[in-house]
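The pair is set out directly below:
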Amino acid sequence: MADLTQVLTEAVKRGASDIHIVAGKPPILRINGQITPMDGLPPLEKEDTRNMIYSVLYEDQRARFEKNWELDCSLAVPNVSRFRVNVYNQLKGVGAVLRVIPSKIPTPNEIGLMPSVAKLAELPRGLVLVTGPTGSGKSTTLACLIELINQTQRKTILTVEDPIEFVYEDKQSIILQREVGQQTKSFGNALKHAVRQDPDVILVGEMRDLETISLAITAAETGHLCFGTLHTQDAPTSIDRMIDVFPPNQQQQVRIQVSTVLQAVVTQTLMPRKDGKGRVASREVMIGTPAVGNIIREGKTHMLYGAIESGAKFGMISMDQHHAFLVKQGLISLEDALAKAHDAAGLKNLLSMGNPPAAQ
């Protein structure tokens, strides 16, 4: 049986983003978005997978998994990397997926963060959402913004995560990191007590239910800068998702609250680089201007697309506009851009214009 630590070490050397441990196959790596089996290793038996996975879990983590049949946790392999771990049961037995967390928090330049997004770290208060599908780099973007604050401002920063991914060292700021299931019972519990911990900035790892969303909105209303994530594909659906979790009789009031506190929605997806050397983030940025606030308050979220496309002077850019910019820069292929386009015909028109709007 292969040693899981050795598998993880080799996976990081190969530039994998995820490692799948599943019975009936050798360890599977996701590299540049594509899955591939590890060379030279035999398929894992059912008992092998269980033993490999249990070898890196603490006793209490094993007990939680055996009770709930699901486990989210983190793992640090010295001199290699940190990993976000999901353990699950499936037909062939215990399996796991381990996501590689870079040991170094990247700079804005390293992840192609446009200035309008980097400036969100300078906000004194409000709600900032970073959205996108699983594996789109939301945690990395948020870590970059938190580290910018840490390096340049004297703040108290509270993070509530499930699990903790990036680990920060205090610089100008004090950073309090709390992991659900380890240092707090739930996102809701942590946020209820957050105001007594004197935070200036609050990071909510995942806004997944009514209580968490409601508390995040309240935190933004009471003068905190609150960052959160949603698994949504664009700014309009992000707004609708937040509002739709509330009972119908509360939704108009929530629209008003969101229109007041929302500072930005950054949606991203990872695209394969044209040169085959990794992936690059394509981002949509919506800034909470008065016009955007009016659209949200009136419940006309379908009109947000137009506001984003015409809001370049405020630092806004649509996903298709950023796709076109990346194609013109030679970073992604036209085929990949069209496959992910919101409006393929509109993307072609942007490219035919010569110089599509650049990320501000």
Q: What stands out?
A: The CA atoms of residues 338 and 345 lie 9 Å apart. The mean pLDDT is 93.
